[in-house]
C-alpha cells in the first residue's frame, strides 16, 4: 500500500500546488511540513491535520497527528461507526492492539491502511526534494501518527540555509 501511495504522492503534490495558486516552492523543512498539514491535507481530506510536532529526541523527526474523531466528523460517519461491530471491537481493545481508523473501511484484511497515506506523504516529500522515511502508527488515544524521519542530506541542507 505504501508503494501505491508513493506514486500518488507525486501527482497529489502537483494538484495541490495547482489548486493553491499562492503556494511557492518550499525549501525549508518547516515550510514543506506546514504545506503538507494545511494545503495538502485539505486537498486530500477536506480538513487540515490536527497537529504537527517535532520530536524531542531527534531533530530530523516530525510527527503529523490525525485524530479519529475529526476524521469521522468530516466524513459524517461518527454515528454509523459508533454502531459498527468493528468500531466497538476497536474501542474495547487495548491501545497497543488497536488498528488505524482507515482500516474500518477495508474488509477484515490484515493490512494497515494508514500506510497508504504514509506512502502519499513520502511521495510528496521526495517530489519536493525532501527525501524521508514515513511510517504510520497509532498512539494510545487512538489517533494516527505519521512519523517523518528526514534523510541526513536534508538536515545538512537546512543547516547551510541558516
Topology of this structure?
Elements: H1 2-19, H2 29-45, E1 51-54, E2 61-66, H3 68-75, H4 78-83, H5 85-92, H6 114-127, E3 132-138, E4 144-150, H7 152-161
Antiparallel strand pairs: 1-2, 2-4, 3-4
Strand-residue fraction?
5-15%
Q: Enumerate the strands of the largest sheet in spatial order, edge to edge or round the barrel.
A: 1-2-4-3
Major sheet attributes: 4 strands, antiparallel
Mean pLDDT: 76
Please provide the ordered H/E string of secondary-structure elements.
HHEEHHHHEEH
How many strands?
A: 4
Secondary structure: helix percent? 40-55%
Give the termini distance in whole angstroms. 37 Å
Uncertain segments? 69-81
Task: Describe the protein's architecture and organization.
It is a single chain. The radius of gyration is 16 Å and the shape is globular. The longest helix is centred in the first third of the chain and has 18 residues, at 2-19. The chain has helices spanning 2-19, 29-45, 68-75, 78-83, 85-92, 114-127, 152-161; strands spanning 51-54, 61-66, 132-138, 144-150. A hairpin with a 5-residue loop joins strand 3 and strand 4 (144-150). Helix 1 crosses helix 2 and helix 1 (2-19) packs across helix 6 (114-127). With 162 residues, the chain is of the alpha+beta class. The protein has a 4-stranded antiparallel sheet with strand order 1-2-4-3.
